[in-house]
Amino acid sequence: APTQCDVPPKKPRGGDAESLFIVSGRVQNRTVTEHILATHNLMVDADRDVLWEYNSESGVYQPTRPVGSGKHSSIIGNALRKMLGDEFDTRYIPSVEFSVLETLREQGRAIPSTFGDPQGHIPFANGNYNTATDELESFSPDLAITYRLLVNYNPDAPFLEIPAWLKANTTLSDGADQLDVLLDIVSGFYDSILGKTPRKIGVMFGESRSGKGTFCNDLLPLIVPSDRTAAIGLAEMTADNRFAVSGLHGCILSVTGELPDTFIKDTSVFKMATGGDTMHADV
What does the pLDDT read at residue 1? Predict the structure, then answer.
C-alpha cells in the first residue's frame, strides 16, 4: 500500500499544476492565501478582523460576514470549497482566514479606521470624483470605498432653479437672503467624506410647514444613503450620553427634528464634533 507521502497532492482545478494546495494531507496556507488574493479583491478591517470584498457592480467594499457575529468569512469557505473539492473540510477555514488577514495587513490593504477617504475621492453613484485632478474616475478596487452617494456627478448638468418657497423661507425679515448659507452648510458632508471637519452646522428655525422638514427629510435623503445618516440631536451630544454619540461614527450627515425647549447646558461634545477633536463613545 502506498505511504502518505506517495499519495499525489491535490492540485488546483484549471490552474497551474505546480501550485499545490494540499501536501501530505495538510493545506498549504501560503499557496492557498496567494491564490485567494489573486482571484478576489479583498481588504481587511483591522479593528474588527473582518474581511471586506469588492463588489465590481457597485464599486464598493462590503463585509463578508456580519460585524460582531463571530463567524468566519463566507468568502474563505467558498473559495476553499472550490479549490479543494472533495478534500474540503471546515477545519481548514480558521487558519486560512488568519493567513489572509495577516497578508492583507502586511500589504497595507485595509479599510481606514478613521472615517474619510484618505485618497481624496468622493464616491458618486457614477464614479469616484478625484478632488485633486477635478476628474471623475471609474470604479476601482484600489480605493477603500464602502458606500456611494445616491446622485451622479455631472459638471455639465444645467442649473435647476430652486423652488421659490425655499428661497422665500430662507429670507429674513430685513431682506437678507440665507439660501447660499444654507447650501454651504449642507455641502459640509463633502468635507466629512474627505475626513475633514465640517466648517458649519446649521439650525433651522421657522413657522410650521415652512419647508424645514421637506428640506431635511425629503431632499437630503435623495443625496446621502440612509446607512450614512444619523439623527443625533444637540441635546443628545453630551459627555454623559456616550452611547448616543457613537451613532455619529461613520456618518456624513446628521439630521434631527425639533429641539427641546429646555436649556442645553452641556455643549462640549458638539464643540468637539465641529472642532475636529477626538471623540470617545461607547458602543
Answer: 45
Over range 236-252, report the average pLDDT. 82
CB distance 20 to 10 below 8 Å = yes
Q: Is 41 exposed, middle or buried (0-12, 13-18, 19+ CB in 10 A)?
A: middle
Query: Does residue 180 register a pLDDT over 90?
Result: no
Q: Please check the confidence at residue 147 and state whether its pLDDT lies above 70.
A: yes
Written as nine digits, the cell of 37 is 488574493
Partners of 26 in beta bridges: 23
| Cα torsion angle, 13, 17, 23, 24, sign | positive
Q: Collapsing DSSP states into helix, strand and coil, what is residue 121? A: strand
What the block records as the C-alpha cell of 127 is: 464614479
Query: 93-107 vs 74-84: helix axis angle to the nearest 10?
Result: 110
Whose CA is closest to 94, among 108, 114, 67, 73? Answer: 73
Query: Nearest 5°: CA angle at 83, between 55 and 20?
Result: 125
Give me the sign of the Cα torsion angle 10, 12, 15, 19.
Answer: negative
The SS3 assignment for 44 reads strand
Q: What is the DSSP secondary structure assignment for residue 127, as one 8-state letter?
A: E
Residue 214 Rama label (left phi>0; alpha psi -120 to 50; beta): alpha
Assign 152 a pLDDT band (cuts: 50, 70, 90).
Answer: very high
Lowest mean pLDDT among 67-76, 177-186, 223-232: 67-76
Name, in order, each residue with C-beta under 8 angstroms of 20's C-beta and a sequence gap of 6 or more: 9, 10, 11, 28, 31
